[in-house]
Design goal:
alpha+beta; eight-stranded antiparallel sheet; 21% helix; globular
């Protein structure tokens, strides 16, 4: 598959999220639980997501991922329990749209990483995945995930 990569500017985006650790094979269950908890909190507040759910990866140790799982909100909100307020920072991001099953997403990362090297871009260490459609109602081959690397200043 041909992946279009580009450098984009993004505004800061407030979120509600949970920072956790998990092995890659636990991600579907962990993400489902956390997204459910955040949506329950938003429902209680009569709120709604202002963008697609995301995961931020602070390392790439597949057996012990350090990640933040969250949902953007229209304005900053207080957290409850493990759910914390935060933000996806403003800045320059290398971006690539990956289409396909989550278990093959490494192809998108390989393409984006190679493109950044070719462009002389240096990532700032955090990788974001924005999940643009619902895996419960979308065939695996049609899942859309925007991959983002925050660039160093």
């Amino acid at each position: 598959m041909d992946y279009a990569c580009e450098l984009i500017e993004r505004e800061a985006e407030p979120v509600l999220s949970v920072r956790t650790r998990a092995a890659v094979d636990q991600l579907p269950q962990v993400m489902g639980r956390i997204y459910g908890e955040i949506m329950t909190l938003l429902d209680k507040r009569r709120g709604y997501p202002s963008g697609p759910p995301f995961a931020a990866y602070y390392n790439m140790d597949m057996q012990d991922l350090d990640l933040e799982i969250g949902i953007p909100v229209a304005s900053p909100q207080e957290g409850v329990g493990d759910i914390r307020p935060g933000r996806i920072p403003a800045g320059r991001f290398a971006s690539c749209m990956y289409i396909g099953p989550y278990d093959r997403i490494s192809a998108g990362y390989e393409t984006l990483t190679s493109w950044m090297e070719d462009q002389g871009l240096e990532p700032g260490g955090i990788a974001y995945e924005l999940y643009l459609n619902d895996p419960a109602s979308t065939p695996p081959g049609e899942l859309q995930t925007q991959l983002l690397f925050l660039m160093k200043d």
